[in-house]
Design brief:
Length: 64
């Protein structure tokens, strides 16, 4: 199955998350951001970025 969206590089993923490439590397190493490895090349599914953000979404509580 081929997705409609192409796989992202680490730089593109960092831009999508508004973080540094180093932070993306940390998230990958920590196992928090799944990747697709093709030899030494690392690519990230756009759906993995969406899931990562949705999983960390929080709603604020009203101030008392």
């Amino acid at each position: 199955m081929i997705a409609d969206k192409p796989l992202l590089t680490r730089s593109e993923a960092a831009k999508a998350l508004a973080v540094s490439v180093r932070k993306v590397d940390y998230l990958i190493a920590a196992g928090e951001l799944p990747v697709v490895r093709m030899g030494r090349t690392i690519r990230i599914r756009p759906s993995a970025i969406e899931y990562f953000v949705e999983a960390r979404e929080q709603y604020g509580k009203a101030a008392r």
